[in-house]
Amino acid sequence: MDAAFTEEQDEIRRTLREVLQKRCGPDEVKAAVGTAAGYDEPLWRQLAEQLGLPGLGLPTEYGGAGCGPTELVLACEEAGRTLLPSPLFSTAVLAAPLIADLGTEQQRADLLPRIAAGAVTVALALPGGLGTALGLTGPNDGSWAGGGRAGGIQARQEPDGAGWRLYGQADQVLGGHSAGLLLVAAHAGGYAAARTRLFLVDGDAAGVVRTRLTALDETRPEARIELRDVAAVPLGGDEAADPGPALARAGELAAAALAAEAVGAADQALASTVEYVQVREQFGRPVGSFQAVKHRLADLYVQVQAARSAAYYAAWAAAASEGDLPVAGPLALAQALEALRSVAGEAIQLHGGVGFTWEHHAHLYFKRAASDELLFGPVHLLRARAADRAGLFGPAVATASAAPAVPVVATASTGSTAAGSAA
C-alpha cells in the first residue's frame, strides 16, 4: 500500500501553515485569548470561509469537504504548532462527528452545513471529565454523567411528552463560554431506569448560565455550564440509541487530533529552541555547540518524531476501524503528551534566564502540555485503558481493531509520515 500523503493532504498542511504563520504568532495568541470569545474571530472566519476548516471532516452533502480523519489530524497538527486558540477542536473534532453519527436527518441537515460554514460553534458538555466520558481513561458506561442521582446533569421529560428540560452542571467545557450551541450529556429516566442521552441546547437559552473559568492553558478556554430547567432537544430524537459507542468513537478521533496538536506544538518548541541555542553564547561559543546540549536536543528530536508517527497511525486506525475500537488513539496521545512535556521543559531550561519569564512563549507550550494531561489523561491511565482494551493483562474489554499494522516513517525535512492516503 502507498503510505505517503497525497498532494491534497500536503496542500492542506502547507496552506494552513502559511496562514497561521502570518496571523497567529505568540503576540497574536496572547491578544486573542484575552478577548471575550477567547480566540481571534476574524481569523476563525477566514479559516472557515477560505479554507473550510470546520467542515474538513464532514460529508460534502452537508457542505463539508468530504475529507477524513487524516486531513483533520493534519489540520490539528498545524493548529498545535502555533497554539491556535479556536473552536476547531471543540466543534469539528468533538461535536460535529457526534451530530453526524447520532443526529436525525433533519438535525444533520440543519446543523452540519452551519458548522461547516463556521456560522455556529458547538461545545460538548460532559459531566465527570472528558477522558472518562470519551472512553480514553476508563469505561464510558454512563456513570460519569451522574448515574441518575444528584450531581451531573439530569433530563426530565415534560408531562405531555412535548419536550425535555435539563438541570445540573458541567465543568471544564471546552469553548463553552462562547459556543452558539451546546451538546449536553445528561441522565434521563431517574435512578432506577437511568440512561445517558445527548441533548442539543441553545447556548443563549433561558436558564443557561455560562462562566469562563481561569484555566492553566488560556489558549484552550474552559467554562462552567449551569443548566437551570433549560429546554433541550434530544440528539437523534426520542428513540435515540445509547451514545456510549459514539462517544468512544469520537474519543478515538479526539485522541488522534490531540496527539497531532501536541506533536505540532512540540515540533515548534523544539525548532525555536534549536534556533536559540545557535545564537546564545557562553564562554565565547554558541550553547548549541556543547556536546551535552546536542545530546539533549537529539533525544527530544527522537521523541517528537516517534510521537508524530504514532499520531498519524492513530488517525489511520480511527478511519480504518469498522465497529471495533483501536487502541492506537490513547497510546498515541500518551506518547505525544510526554513528548510535548519533555520538549517544553527543556525549551525553558535551554532558553536560560529569558525562558523563565512568564512573558516568553516557551511557557505557552509548557502550559498546553500540563493542561492537556489534566484534561484528557493522565498518561498512565491512557496506557492502562489501551491495555485493557487489548486484553494484555486479562480479557479484552473491547475488541481491538483487526486492521494490520502500517509502517509509519517520519521524514525530518517535511514532517510527513505514513498513513496519509491510507485514510
Task: Walk me through the structure.
Residues 6-118 form the Acyl-CoA dehydrogenase/oxidase N-terminal domain. It holds the Pfam family Acyl-CoA_dh_N. GO terms for molecular function: oxidoreductase activity. It is an enzyme of class 1 (oxidoreductase). By secondary structure, the chain is an alpha+beta fold. It folds into three domains: 7-120, Butyryl-Coa Dehydrogenase, subunit A, domain 1; 124-234, Butyryl-CoA Dehydrogenase, subunit A, domain 2 (Beta Barrel), CATH 2.40.110.10; 244-390, Butyryl-CoA Dehydrogenase, subunit A, domain 3, CATH 1.20.140. Helices cover 47% and strands 14% of the residues. A five-stranded mixed β-barrel has the order 2-3-7-5-4. Strand 8 (281-282) and strand 9 form a beta hairpin. Helix 5 packs antiparallel against helix 8 (244-277). The longest helix is centred in the middle third of the chain and has 34 residues, at 244-277. The radius of gyration is 21 Å and the shape is globular. It starts with 6 loop residues before the first helix and ends in a 33-residue tail after the last helix. 52% of the residues are buried.
